[in-house]
Amino acid sequence: MPELKVGRRASPGCTNVGAYSKHWPCLFPQHGPGMKHTRKIELAPWQQEIVDEFTEDFVRGLVHSDGCRGMNRVRRPLKNGDHWYEYPRYLFTNVSLDIQRIFTDALDRLGIPWKQMHLCRAAGCRGAAG
Questions:
Q1: 92-115 tens-digit pLDDT
Q2: CB under 8 Å to 85, separation ≥6 — which residues?
Q3: What CATH number has the domain spanning 32-129?
Q4: What φ, ψ does residue 114 adopt, rounded to 5°?
Q5: 36-46 as b/e: b if 16+ CB within 10 A
Q6: What residues contact residue 113 under an 8 Å CB cut-off, 6+ apart?
Q7: Burial status of residue 121 (CB atoms within 10 A of its CB: 0-12, 13-18, 19 or more)
Q8: How far apart are CA 64 and CA 90, in angstroms?
Q9: How far is CA 4 from the centre of its chain?
Q10: For residues 20-30, b (16+ Cβ closer than 10 Å) or e, as one string?
Q11: Which helix (H) or strand (E) holds 99?
C-alpha cells in the first residue's frame, strides 16, 4: 500500500506508529467488529505459509504481545542441603481459544513442550504455557 500515510508519535521510551486504511481487512482477515474471543480466528492460507516459514519469530511475537517470560525457581530439600533449580518459564494468555490453538500448533511444530494453564475463574482467562 504505497500511498498509505504513516503517523509517528514519540512517547517515553518508544515511538507509536499508526497507519489507517479501509483495506486492512484484506491483509488481516481476522480483523472485524467485536471481541476476538467471540469470533472465529484462523489464518488465511498465505498467512499460514509465512507462519510455517518463520515459526520461531511468530511464537516470539505472540509471547511478546500476549505473554511474559520469567525465571522459575524451585527449591528441593536434599540430605546435604537445599538445592535450587532455575529455568526460564514462558507464559501466554489470550482469551481466544482459536489464538491459543494457533500458538500451541506453532509450539508443536518447533518441538517445544507446553501445558495448558488452569482456568482463571476470577479473571475469566485461559492460556497456554510453553
A1: 888 888 889 999 999 999 999 998
A2: 73, 74, 76
A3: 3.10.28
A4: -145, 160
A5: ebeeebebeee
A6: 107, 130
A7: exposed
A8: 10
A9: 27
A10: eeeeeeeeeeb
A11: helix 97-110
| Cβ 130 vs Cβ 72: under 8 Å | no
Q: Phi/psi class of residue 80: alpha, beta or left (left: φ > 0; alpha: ψ in -120 to 50)?
A: alpha
Measure Cα distances from 70 to 25, 105, 116, 130 in Å.
Answer: 35, 22, 17, 12
Highest mean pLDDT among 22-31, 35-44, 63-72: 63-72
For 28, phi then psi, to 5°, come to: -130, 80
Residue type, 65: S
Confidence of residue 118 (pLDDT cuts 50, 70, 90): low
- Residue 94 is given by DSSP the state -
Q: Which residue has cell 488481516?
A: 28
How many angstroms separate the CA atoms of 126 and 97, rounded? 8
The DSSP call for residue 118 is: P
Task: Record the pTM.
Answer: 0.66
